[in-house]
Specification:
Layout: E1 4-10, E2 19-23, E3 41-52, E4 55-58, E5 65-68
Antiparallel strand pairs: 1-2, 1-3, 3-4, 3-5
């Protein structure tokens, strides 16, 4: 069974005021996040989770990664 993934992203390393995006199983392995300021850094962490027999099983959050945004 493939897990779903939650992505949290924020503009600071401590992940204050984060926003969440979800990638459902069987879909793309990447996610385009809109509404970010161009030329800035964004901090991202990921968590895998799955639902089995009505209960949600979650993994730990990944370490926070720093990524630059692209100008489009």
């Amino acid at each position: 069974m493939l897990p779903d993934n939650k992505i949290q992203y924020a503009d600071n390393k401590k992940m204050k005021k984060y926003r969440t995006a979800t990638i459902k199983k069987g879909t793309a392995l990447s996610k385009t996040i809109s509404g970010l300021s161009s030329g800035k850094y964004v901090y991202i962490r990921v968590q895998a989770y799955s639902t089995e027999k009505g209960s949600v099983i979650t993994d730990a959050w990944s370490k926070v990664s720093k990524s630059g945004t692209k100008v489009r």
